[in-house]
Amino acid sequence: MKIICAGEMLIDFTPLGESFSYKANPGGAVANVAVSTARNGIDTSFLGLLGNDDFGRMLKGILEKERITMLTPDLTDAAVTTLAFVTLYDNGERSFTFVRKPGADILLHPDDVKESDIKACDLLHAGSVSLSDSPSREAIGKAVKCAHNAGKMVSFDVNYRDNIWHDEEKCKACVYDLLPYVDFLKISDEETFIVGGSVDNIPDFMTKNHLRVLIETLGADGARYFVNDNGTIRSDVISGYSVKAIDATGAGDAFWGGFLSRILMFEPTAASSVTEEMVRTALVYGNKSGALCVQKPGGIPAIPGKAAIETFEG
């Protein structure tokens, strides 16, 4: 099975414990998912732009090391590679300050999206960070619509960042434009504004937007799923794992990459063939991936592979 992850790859500057002292780590939500699926043995491609600078060359080298095909291999001179400075809190949570005015990831163009690439995959994954500016907004829109129209499965992560959007309603409007083409939607427990502010709205929201699966991440408590089974919305919570969190950077992406990988291991022919039992199994797998990730610092370096996930007992 093949997946294309379309969107941002950037540098996360992770604090070293001293004031304004950082380590440069590879990151970006979509790129994190790409590394996760690749480490789970899924044939993975990345569709996104990097700057023609030392950071861009570093990130390109990481994609090559992970055996991830770069669908836009030429580095751009039009902007530097996007940077994000991470602030960590005592509970392992974090916040970000972005250097992105513009960053290379924003400059992904609709012409970079090739229909032949989309038709060759089984699932396309994207997220909202790339919807915040043009031309990447139009490029991701083209990729999502092309995948849907070609009968491919489509995954989307809301991944709201206030210091990128500054406005929940603007993000909501951009996400809503793509919802008719999405099969698997991921939100966090802080992103229920997408569904009208309450999880009670989710069944009607899914029916209206023809979503197959919606996952609400609950941090250490695991994840709540909603599956549309021929018009009946089935829901439950799959518990997480109690571990000592060092750094939550990339944990949600490791979770989602694990979830999508496990779904693809079932070799579904379409989103309509993904059952509730598949979702439950994939969520256990994704929760393990996220729990392993938070125990190490630094986004991509902390993302576990298949062997670690399968042997993790919590």
**Total of helices:** 10
Classified in CATH, the superfamily is Ribokinase
CATH architectural label: 3-Layer(aba) Sandwich
Our count of domains comes out at 1
| Average of per-residue pLDDT values | 94
End-to-end Cα distance, whole Å, is 28 Å
Instruction: Output the CATH class name.
Output: Alpha Beta
Approximate strand percentage: 15-25%
Q: From N to C, what is the helix and strand string?
A: EEEHEHEEEHEHEHHEHEEEHHH
Give the number of DSSP strands: 13
Low-confidence stretches: none
Q: In which order are the strands of the major sheet placed?
A: 5-4-1-8-9-10-11-12-13
Nearest-angstrom radius of gyration?
18 Å
Q: What percent of the residues sit in helical stretches (DSSP H or I)?
A: 25-40%
**SS content category:** alpha/beta
> What general form does the structure show?
globular
CATH topology heading: UDP-N-acetylmuramoyl-L-alanine:D-glutamate ligase
Oligomeric state, counting identical vs distinct chains: single chain
Sheet with most strands: 9 strands, mixed
